[in-house]
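Subgroup meeting minutes
Present: P.N., E.W., G.H.
Scribe: E.W.

1. P.N. recapped why we're keeping a running log of single-chain structure predictions: easier to compare across weeks, and new members can see raw inputs and outputs side by side.
2. G.H. added today's entry (178 aa).
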Amino acid sequence: MSDIRGKALRTAARLHSGQKYNDGSYVENHLERVAHAAIELAKTEGIIEPEILDFIYCVALLHDVLEDCFDYSHTTLDAEHKKLSERFNEGIANAILILSDNAFNSTEEYLKAISENMITKIVKAADRIANILMLVEVEGKKQRERLAKKYLDQLPLFEKYNIYPELIKKAFWEMSKL
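Output recorded in log:
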């Protein structure tokens, strides 16, 4: 594992420490699934440069930190973005900011911004696919149905902004077979 990947893994583990995902597993498991899926998707797009793959891996591991890890009554999104920029680099921090829905006024604005950057498109698609595939493990029928509805309702925007809609539809199909 490259130094920057290790640094991103340690940072994500520290910031998400103790947090659990919708299926009851620790968030770190989800982040690692997203990171590995993002790397595989990047490779299918012909991205093979180790530095770019490291960048994608780091962004995938850290994609939820600005959304889920800070109490914004005690800090600001800008302050935490700046800390990420100093700890990693501006490119990684900016991609994480784009992947943070709390940085936008609407889901459409958020997904449009994601669609304008190949790396954020890859990471968001990997994240959504991982989210869909874990639905079968979500405890509680109402929670599972609420999340499935949210993901289905957003599918037209993934189509509109060409954020790998066919892969997301495939994930829904695979999930329905489980």
